[in-house]
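B., you asked whether I could sanity-check this one before it goes into the benchmark set. Here's the sequence:
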Amino acid sequence: MDTSTPPPYDLIGVGIGPFNLSLAALAEPVPGLRTLFLDQRPEFRWHPGMLVDGARMQVPFLADLVSLVDPTNPWSFLNYLRAQDRLFPFYFAERFQLTRREYDHYCRWAAEGLPNCRFGTEVTALHREGPLFRVETTDTATGRRSTALARNLALGVGTRPVLPEAFAGLADHPGAFHSAEYLDRRGQLAGARDITVVGSGQSGAEIFLDLLRRHEGDGVRLRWLTRTRALAPMEYSKLGLEHFTPDYTRYFHGLPAPVRDALVSAQWQLHKAASAETLAEIHDHLYERTIGRPIDAAPVEITPGTAVTEARPGPCGGLELRLRHTDSGAEHVLRTDAVVLATGYRAARPAALEPLAPLIDWDESGRYRVDLDHRVATRPELTGGLYVQNAELHTHGVGTPDLGLGAHRAAVILNAVTGRTVHRLPGRTAWTGFAPPGPATPAQDPATTPAQTSARTPVVPRPQELTRAATVGR
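And here's what the prediction gave me:
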């Protein structure tokens, strides 16, 4: 019986959302690179509670797992269409944006086919073991525990739904739930005669539109409340979109932390607003619904500039919301049967990371300090590379959660992990110059030449480690 210790992986990914799935897809063909990606769920699912019929992505199909870095990679969306015999239907559909359902199916196709992705495996703890990381796991079906060693980790655990402070005491109330659960709990709204949606982003707009379509003519009152002063559409001009380029990421990263924090809040229309197309569909629906009738004949209220300051169970059932109008300061109480909270998501620190927490150099607000290679700053004794995906909004700006930058970030991480240019990346990606004029220097993407801001152990292909389908704990 072979009792030899299996060699360490070059990279283990914790969590398999679109970003770590992109990293897995770009890493899988690299000769000699041993990678493994783990997720406790039984299969890949992307925001299943928001796969509303007809809802579309806000990015073009080229923002898939690999194409903006390597369009020849076998896990591209176009290759998915070929595998599904859907190239001609997609060609004739002439739609640049995919439906959410098709994007989810595409990602599941990749996750099921990639040999370095494993589901049903919960990462329970991450430890330092000399120059390596020790990854402890549990098989969610059998309870079997295993361990694996890795030179580098990539945290891609995603974000968690945010409940506003006013709703903190209603987490278990059947009449109030987050938009992440919308499709699972939409049936609970069947008996409601007054439904309120809170939140002005894309999720809020899609849910409000879905409710409009489902409750046409049945007398159910629908209400859309937002704190923002206007239902402004997401910035989608061609030059405005250059904020979602590596050029802007580098500029943003070089700013002082207080400036970065202020910018993230001020740039809400770049990454938190609803699409103009969805807002137009809502208007069109209301226009058609009121032909031959007064505008106020439809039991619909859309009220921006209004914050929920308190929420509690109503005295006769339902919910009672205390509202404050932002401009006037006027307050009033609203009674409603149900509330859907489209109030966004926030990066979360996974519990498995706690053993490593004392070795991480947290910033003044308890957040990761992240370099341009997406590597977390750590104490000197932790020499392995700890990378994060979609947890660096405060250091990398509005492009952090954007799927269009997912493949580029994954390539940056791979180049840093290997210490060589596995994927060649462009030096200039935007027409816009975000920084003030200064001395002319050659454009250089840090991913093309790995930065020297932290120590690395370059990956050298090892012939004995060419098998990438190795099992944890084997």
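One thing to flag: The mean pLDDT is 90. Otherwise nothing jumped out at me.
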